[in-house]
Amino acid sequence: MIEFEKKIAQQTLSILKKKSWNTFSLEQVLKSVKVKKTNIKTKFDLLKLISKYVDYLLINNTKTLENSSSKDMLFEVLMARFDILEVNRKAFLEIYKILKKTPQQFIKLLPIFLESMIITAELSKYNVNGLKGTIRLKGLMLIYFITFFQWVDDKDSSLEKTMTALDKNLDQAEKLSKLFL
């Protein structure tokens, strides 16, 4: 990820901690990071950049992850993703709120979320190749979203409820995969 993209994502998250999505402008973000030329043309582009930034942080935060079972590695990597969200909780809740109000924006972001899940799978050494892999990837995305809704409601900074939900969701997915895959 290019340095100025990181700055733009960080600045957007910083603004979203204080303001709602509708009360700031793209120009305000770009001006505050002193960027004149960029391929970011809309606030939707900011959402894509923030997703890319989370992936960048996830890759850096999981470099020292030890090899273990598929389920354990998925758990560790997904919790690392939630830990990243937790650092900017207020900002990500604001993004969630706007995506909830405008589902068409969420649908446009699905390919980016899919890329994020591919990165998550790769970091977890979870095979998502071939037809079975495609089904696994969609299942992983579903697990993430179901657990995300628990994260939204988890007010505890230790994310205990989120961890419990993720563990339960991974257990259920493992049982289902043994039945169908």
How is this structure best described in words?
This protein has 181 residues and is an all-alpha fold. The chain has eight helices and no strands. α3 (43-61) packs across α4 (70-87) and α4 (70-87) runs antiparallel to α8. The radius of gyration is 17 Å and the shape is globular. The N and C termini lie far apart (36 Å). The relative contact order is 0.11.
Keywords:
mainly alpha, 181 residues
Summarize this, please?
The chain is mostly helical. Helix content is 76%, strand content 0%.
Beta-strand content estimate: under 5%
**pLDDT averaged over residues:** 92
- Going by helix content, strand content and strand pairing, the class is mainly alpha
Shape: globular
* Rg, nearest Å: 17 Å
SSE pattern: HHHHHHHH
How far apart the termini lie comes to: 36 Å
Number of strands: 0
Helix coverage percent:
over 70%
The number of helical runs is 8
Largest sheet: number of strands, sense, barrel closure: none
pLDDT under 50 segments (min length 5)?
A: none
